[in-house]
Predict the structure.
Amino acid sequence: MGISPVRYDREWRSLWFGNNLLNLPEKELCKIRGNRISMVFQEPMSALNPVQPIGFQVAESLILHKNLSRHQAQRQASKVLDRVGLPAKKISRSLYPHQLSGGQRQRVVIAIAMVCEPELIIADEPTTALDVTIQEQILALISELVIEENMTLMLITHDLGVVAENTDQMLVMYAGRIVEKGPTNKVFEHLVHPYTRGLFASIPDTEKSANDLSRHPKNRRLSTIPGRVPEFWERTKGCSFADRCSRAQAKCFSELPDETRISNGHSVACFFPWE
Ligand code: SF4
C-alpha cells in the first residue's frame, strides 16, 4: 500500500482530524464518505450504477454533500468529467456505463471520487481491470489530479512498480498488520522484513534475463514465499508470518513483534530485523 503525497502524518494513522472514524455514528460517517474521503474502486463496471447516466452519477455527490441544485450539480459534474479526459463534445453526459470503454468508465469513477474535492482519495487496485496502456494513463491522471488539487492518495496495490512511481510513503501489510513502513525510496533501498524481501524476490528480473539465457524466465523457477497466508481464524498470538519465515525463532510463535526503528521514518515489525 502506498500513500502520496501531501498530508500523511501521525494523526492520520488512527484519527481523522481528531475523530476516531470507527466510533462515529453512521450519520456522521455519511457526511465524510464521498465528501472528505472518497474511493476509486478496482472494477468500474461494478462500481458504477448501470441504470443511471454518468452525468447524474457524478452530480449525485454534489447534490447530497454540497446542497447544489440538480442543474448546478450537473454543470459542475460536466466540468469534472472534462477534467478527467471525457469532454462533453465526445462523451455525452447521458450515456450509461455499458456504453463506455473500461478506461472511460474508470475515468467516470475518478470523477465521482474527486467531484467534492476530498482531502483523501483511497484507490483500491484502480487499474487491475484495465489493459496495460490504459493503466498508465489512469495512474498518471490520478497522480496529476492529486497534486493539482492538493489531495492525499492512499493507493492499495500489489504492484511494486506502481508503488515506486506513485507514492512517497509505503506500508507493507501482511495478514491485516503493518509489517514494514517508511518513505518509499528508503524501503526500496533497504528491504528489511522477511515478507517484504520475499515480495521483491518474486519479481521476475527481465533485464538481467535478456542478456543471460541461463537466467531467462523460461529457464528458471520464480522465487516464491513458502506456505500460504493464514485465514483470520487461524492467526495465533505470535507473528503471523512465523510459519513462512526462514528467520523465525521460538519467540516469534508466542509474541507479537513491536515496531523496530531502522532509520528515520523507516520501521519494521520484526524481532530479528538485522539478521
Ligand atoms: S518476528 Fe520472527 S517470524 Fe516474524 S518476521 Fe520477524 S523473524 Fe520472521
